[in-house]
Design a protein that fits this description.
The complex is a heterodimer of chains A (617) and B (88). Chain A is an alpha+beta fold and 617 residues long. Chain A is built from 23 helices and 22 strands. Among the domains of chain A are: 121-211, Calcium-transporting ATPase, cytoplasmic transduction domain A, CATH 2.70.150.10; 291-318 and 440-544, Rossmann fold (3-Layer(aba) Sandwich), CATH 3.40.50; 322-436, 3-Layer(aba) Sandwich (Calcium-transporting ATPase, cytoplasmic domain N), CATH 3.40.1110.10. Chain A is elongated. Chain B has 88 residues and is α+β, with helices and mostly antiparallel strands. Chain B is globular, with a radius of gyration of 13 Å. Classes of the chains: A alpha+beta (617), B alpha+beta (88).
């Protein structure tokens, strides 16, 4: 019975509205006060039922809820035969709850979209070798699964047969399909656009990358900030206090009407819902635009960041260096390039990779007695020539003569932020190459946006030499840049500026910078949904998209502003109502309820604005 | 000191219960208290998520069943959509 009443709350609300309308029509149109009173009595009783049941259930677990305040108020109004008030208040309360539910669903929609992308079924190979469609929960690690064109990959797994293209937007945010063949890794929640794959399940359900992202977002939207915990504690004692206050007022004034008006006015509706609403809408906006914010604590801290520390390689720069300039000092360049390539292809140094890419297809020669000079380069014998490839120090060691012209070239290259690769054959300098790590596209513009959003210090830390670091820093207009830094130097630096009172965000690749990520007030990983990035950071930028950073900062600032607005609205409404009660005549029980329900809608709609948040140009 | 718990740990399971959309933060409180009141439910682990409308808890399968957990929530007047149980 109880359950039936609660389930038909919406119908009850509608019925109560009809009854109230009937009452007033019959009074005004027909002057019939009997129908008027009867309709209002019925409306009061059926409307109060679900509220009273909820109040009773809460009381059983020792919670004094808003429902209880309203129930007592309504019953008292009923007893003093003010049926108008009792009917209207119950109706407003029920209708308000209905509107709340509708609008709340809106604020949660962004995250719902995400969870609905979760795969539901899979084709699993049974003992007889056939593939049968099963619920995704019935898939275990090690199962063999079939993925058809257009279907979602049900688990994280490895391709063992077939090939195709997969849209991994749900994991990486990147919408260009990625080719998959035998031994490729595939991720749950991604979509096979063409081809057919047979995969073996490596991780299933909540352990998949997608499952972890969903869990993370869900936990985040329900995590509580300090202010929120305070509001929670506050409202726990607030309701009993209001109840007590109303009782005291009644005791002294014997004015039932005043006492029950206080009960209704004291409902903390907008206060308890205001903050969670901003939270869920904001985090939803982030999730939809490739920014994962881990909870409301993160939002508060991030919105106050005044110093951002960037790792250079892979964050501000692309991360794979390429040859930017080449000067030949002799005519036999083709032959020399052949020697270079032959030596470099035996090395796994990042510079060697860049050089090989630049040289392209050549004839390789046999390389003998290779000697790797630490911090210098490589010396080897190729076609009975002694060939040295490396930096200036190596040339000096090899006693290669560097003319003034060459020295000028070297200076020029270094000033442009190049790492130098010189090649000598039989003690004579042949080629000078400048290798440079390109600055990521759009970084400069995005840094400017960050500054505009109020970040005072933009700092770059790098393991590269100071010269290279300075050039990048100048080009990007950074506040500070430090080179020759090991991971432990970076975290020491962060500790230092924190002790100076700065609130610091660190942005790195999440692999070798985890100490810094953990130490900073806000750690931001540029991982493409990798485990480490998700684990260690407070904010994850999907698909390593640097342009998401200003959006993330602007968003957190908006969210925390929004929360403050909602708390102000909620507290303000209560204050205004009480002032109205004390100083004037216009505040009655139903006016109080109406204003309360309106204020709840106002904070929800205010929170909803965050769903559409976009950084202004 | 928790010998009883230790023995029970072998049968500890985790459950995630999907509820109807929760609309009032005080619902969270009610459901939390209801779950914590059940014998065999690890009180520390009970977590009701308002926005996700989910309840999570660890429980001892020897002492209490998922059905009992669901029933206690239903008694509070909230609809249970589905439950996922995992062994720990």
């Amino acid at each position: 019975m109880q359950r039936f009443i609660l389930k038909s709350k919406n119908q009850i609300t509608l019925l109560s509205a009809i009854l109230i309308a009937t009452a007033y029509i019959s009074k005004w149109a027909a002057g019939n006060t009997e129908v008027f009173t009867l309709a209002l009595i019925v409306a009061s009783v059926i409307g109060a039922l679900p509220i009273a049941i909820q109040a009773y259930q809460a009381l059983r677990v020792k919670v004094v809820s808003i429902d209880l305040l309203v129930t007592i108020a309504v019953i008292s109004a009923f007893l003093i035969q003010n049926y108008e008030e009792s009917a209207i208040v119950t109706f407003l309360f029920l209708f308000g709850a209905y509107l709340e539910q509708r609008t709340l669903n809106q604020t949660r929609s962004a995250i719902k979209e995400l969870t609905e992308m979760a795969p539901e079924s899979a084709f699993k190979q049974m003992e007889n070798g056939e593939f049968v469609e099963v619920d995704v929960d019935d898939v275990d690690e090690g199962d063999l699964l079939l993925v058809k064109t257009g279907a979602k990959v049900p688990v994280d797994g490895t391709v063992i047969f077939g090939d195709g293209h997969i849209n991994e937007a749900s994991i990486t945010g990147e919408s260009l399909p990625v080719g998959k063949e035998k031994d490729s890794k595939v991720f749950a929640g991604t979509i096979l656009e063409n081809g057919t794959l047979q995969i073996v399940a490596d991780r299933v359900g909540e352990d998949t990358t997608f499952g972890r992202i969903i869990e993370l977002v869900e936990e985040a939207q329900d995590s509580k900030s300090q202010t929120e915990r305070f509001v929670d504690r506050f409202s726990k004692y607030y309701t009993p206090v209001v109840l007590f206050l109303a009782f005291v007022v009644w005791l002294f004034t014997k004015d039932v009407e005043l006492a029950i008006t206080i009960l209704v006015l004291g409902c903390p509706g907008a206060l308890v819902i205001g903050v969670p609403v901003s939270n869920v809408a904001g985090i939803g906006n982030g999730a939809r635009s490739g920014v994962l914010l881990k909870g409301s604590e993160v939002i508060t801290d991030f919105s106050r960041v005044d110093t951002m520390v960037f790792d250079k390689t892979g964050t501000l720069t692309v991360g794979n260096p390429s040859v930017s300039e080449t000067i030949y000092y002799s005519a036999d360049s083709a032959e020399v390039l052949g020697y270079m390539a032959s030596i470099e292809r035996e090395s796994d140094h990042p510079l060697a990779k860049a050089i090989l890419e630049e040289i392209g297809e050549v004839e390789f020669s046999v390389v003998e007695s290779t000697e790797v000079v630490k911090g210098g380069g490589i010396v080897a014998n190729v076609n009975e020539h002694r060939v040295a490839v490396g930096n200036v120090a190596l040339m000096e060691r090899e006693k290669v003569y560097l003319s003034d012209e060459v020295k000028a070239d070297i200076d020029r290259f270094m000033n442009c932020g190049n790492s130098l690769v010189l090649t000598s054959v039989d003690g004579e300098l042949k080629v000078l190459m400048g290798v440079r790590d390109q600055i990521r596209k759009g970084v400069k513009e995005n840094l400017r946006k960050l500054k505009k959003l109020g970040v005072k210090n933009l700092v770059m830390l790098s393991g590269d030499n100071q010269g290279t670091v300075d050039v990048v820093s100048r080009e990007l207009g950074l506040t500070e840049a430090h080179g020759n830094m090991l991971p432990e130097d970076k975290s020491a630096y962060i500790k230092k500026i924190q002790s100076e009172g700065h609130i610091v965000a660190f942005i790195g690749d999440g692999v070798n910078d985890s100490p810094s990520l953990a130490l900073a007030d806000i750690g931001i990983a540029m991982g493409s949904g990798t485990d480490v990035a998700i684990e260690t950071s407070d904010v994850v930028l999907m698909n390593s998209d640097f342009s998401r950073l200003p959006h993330a900062l602007g968003l957190t600032k908006s969210i925390s502003r929004n929360m403050k607005q909602n708390v102000t609205i909620a507290v303000g409404v209560v204050l205004v109502l009480f002032a109205g009660l004390l100083l004037s005549e216009w505040v009655s029980m139903s006016v109080g309820m109406l204003v309360h329900e309106l204020s709840i809608l106002v904070v929800i709609i205010n929170g909803m604005r965050l769903l559409g948040f976009r950084l202004r140009k | 000191m928790n010998t009883i718990n230790k023995i029970g740990e072998n049968n500890m399971k985790s459950v995630t219960i999907q509820l109807e959309t929760l609309t009032c933060p005080s619902c969270v409180q009610k459901i939390e208290v209801a779950l914590k009141g059940l014998e065999g439910v690890d009180k520390e682990s009970v977590k009701v998520m308002f926005n996700a409308s989910k309840a999570k808890a660890y429980f001892d399968d020897d002492k209490v069943s998922v059905e009992q957990l669901e029933e206690s929530i239903a008694k509070m007047g909230y609809e249970v959509k589905n439950s996922k149980v995992k062994s720990v």
